[in-house]
Design goal:
heterodimer; A: 425 residues; alpha+beta; five-stranded mixed beta sheet; four-stranded antiparallel beta sheet; globular; B: 143 residues; mainly beta; Umud Fragment, subunit A; seven-stranded antiparallel beta sheet; 1 helix; elongated; DNA-directed DNA polymerase activity (chain B); hydrolase (chain B); nucleotidyltransferase (chain B); LexA-like (chain B); LexA_repressor (chain B)
Chain lengths: 425, 143
């Protein structure tokens, strides 16, 4: 009988990903501190290492504008086209070097290295070097016997960057113990602020305290997830690599407007645009939806403005992914929600009660989506795939809406637009 | 003799799919000679994660056939060597030049007599961003 090899995972995480992306095509910014702002230039959502001492995460832009200027920190609007493309490049490079990869978020991925021959520390360093050279993005690598420990190893690689060279292997007992003892329990994957507050009165302050707690007891007291976390910290792998995302159960498209909207017409454009985008996402995961929720609201924090927020649920006549039907339904819903005299700041379209195409069984007498609609949507997606998003739109969706988000500080689309490439003399 | 292959994994490679009609009449003489369509993407390796497009401004590389407004294909996986045309940043300023590296002497050379060589001195910081593999220019007089 052959022994199953010990499980090994790596967590590869990009350092200050959004800020690093902004630097790839701007060598002049290599040492300039950078922050990236959320949609509508609202608040700080990413900071380069140099900016971290001066700006906190989630601080509103208008509050920190002076601090930024004083310290020579450059602010960028979020450029998701760029970040998405760079993320894909990073993940493709890593995919070529490991047997299996789970892309966990836009800037981190788990790799399973179980059974791989050779030095994994060297592999970690090779991944780091190649991603850096091929994409310009710095990454850290954490290696361990479980996903939870790999995540903590990665945190250690980041915290003690100069000592570790950005790669930490926690498979040896001694190094595991050292890192667990030096990490706050709040740094453990899945331990949020609320759970941390529950654990501290029990004397659990470090990751080491948690690893040595009674897994079963705490599991009963709090959740099975916590029990798994504790077992993973002790080196028993409970979480496997998830290579394929399960289709999402709901799809949401909501955005703030660049300026407040009072009239129905621009609101209708916004709702139609969000519906258009949501339906695209729906079709790309091959789902159909049975319900939609449309909501609008005014700003919530300005005491001088009248406030209004309301949503409505729409039942669709049959499970559908037809943009035209969904746009009609969403605009009808909007007309029922709309009250004149308010200054609206945000609209939201959510698709709910999703089912996978082919999985739902038609009631013998129920109406289902006509085949012609499927062909039209297929052509629509094919055209937009070939010539770029928004080439073919429903008439209700404007090409360049006046209400679009404020993104006054956005960098170029260096990788997705021929007219916006990096320019070199 | 059995050869055990490794585990199958997903690949992004796209293989052409042909649909054959079962011939009721005369078989097409072309079916034996099907080949890939020509793809500039493949020639330039444009979809690889280490390939980037950069727009050139100015006349400093005209001797190498790279003109103002041309596109160049830049490969970041190639180890830069003496003689390569590179995208390089000197003290943060990105430039397209020919890399000269002989012993201790490192310089970025233009391919235009009006631009003198730029020697890399002690206080300078040189970062090679990538190696130019192809250039693309439009010959449309209206463009």
């Amino acid at each position: 009988m052959t022994q199953k090899p010990e499980a090994v995972f790596a967590l590869i995480d990009c350092n200050s990903f959004y800020a690093s992306c902004e630097r790839v095509f701007r060598p002049d910014l290599a040492r300039t501190p950078i922050v990236v702002l959320s949609n509508n230039d609202g608040c700080v959502i990413a900071r380069s290492a140099e900016a971290k001492p001066f700006v906190k995460m989630a601080q509103p832009y208008f509050q920190v504008r002076d601090t930024l200027r004083r310290h020579g920190i450059l602010a960028f609007s979020s450029n998701y086209a760029l970040y998405g493309e760079m993320s894909e490049r990073v993940m493709t490079v890593i995919e070529g070097m490991v047997p299996r990869l789970e892309v966990y978020s836009i800037d981190e991925a788990f790799a399973e290295l179980t059974g791989m021959a050779g030095s994994l520390d060297q592999l970690g360093r090779a991944i780091r070097a190649r991603v850096r050279q091929w994409t310009g993005i710095p990454v850290g690598v954490g290696i361990a016997g479980t996903k939870t420990l790999a995540k903590l190893a990665n945190h250690a690689a980041k915290t003690w960057q100069t000592q570790t060279g950005g790669v930490v292997d926690l498979r040896a007992q001694a190094s595991r113990e050292w890192v667990l003892k030096h990490c706050d329990v709040g740094e453990v994957w899945g331990i949020g602020r609320r759970m941390k507050a529950h654990l501290e009165p029990l004397g659990i302050k470090t990751a080491w305290d948690l690893a040595n707690a009674d897994a079963r007891n705490l599991g009963l007291q709090f959740s099975v997830v916590l029990e798994k976390t504790i077992r993973e910290l002790m080196g028993t792998s409970c979480l496997a690599l998830e290579e394929v995302d399960p289709p999402r159960q709901e799809i949401c498209c909501s955005r703030m407007f660049g300026d407040r909207l009072s009239e129905l017409a621009p609101l209708r454009e916004a709702v139609a645009s969000y519906t258009f985008r949501a339906a695209e996402k729906l079709r790309s995961q091959r789902s159909l939806c049975k319900k939609m929720r449309v909501a609008i609201r005014t700003g919530l924090f300005n005491p001088d403005e009248a406030q209004y927020a309301k949503g409505v649920m729409v039942n669709l006549p049959y499970p559908t992914d037809d943009t035209r039907l969904m746009t009609r339904a969403a605009c009808d819903a909007l007309e029922r929600l709309y009250r004149p005299g308010y200054r609206y700041s945000k609209a939201e379209v959510m698709l709910l009660d999703l089912c996978q195409r082919g999985e739902y069984t038609d009631d013998l007498f129920a109406v289902s989506q006509p085949a012609a609609a499927e062909r039209v949507m297929g052509v629509l997606d094919a055209i937009n795939e070939r010539w770029g998003r928004g080439t073919l739109r429903s008439a209700a969706v404007p090409a360049a809406p006046a209400w679009a988000m404020r993104r006054g500080l956005m960098s170029q689309s260096y990788t997705t637009r021929l007219d916006q490439l990096m320019r070199v003399r | 003799m059995i050869t055990i292959l490794g585990p199958l994994s997903l690949s992004s490679a796209r293989l052409p799919v042909y649909s054959f009609r079962v011939p009721a009449g005369f078989p097409s003489p072309a079916t034996d000679h099907l080949e890939h369509a020509i793809s500039l993407d493949e020639l330039l390796n444009l979809r690889a994660p280490h390939i980037y497009l950069v727009r050139i401004e100015g006349e400093s590389m005209v001797g190498a056939g790279i003109f103002d407004g041309d596109l160049v294909v830049v490969d970041r996986a190639i180890e830069p060597a003496h003689g390569h045309i590179v995208i390089a940043a000197i003290n943060g300023e990105p430039l397209c030049k020919r890399l000269h590296r002989r012993g201790q002497e490192v310089a970025l050379l233009s391919e235009n007599r009006r631009f003198p060589p730029r020697y890399i001195l002690d206080g300078d910081e040189l970062q090679i961003w990538g190696v130019v593999t192809f250039s693309v220019r439009s010959h449309d007089p209206k463009a």
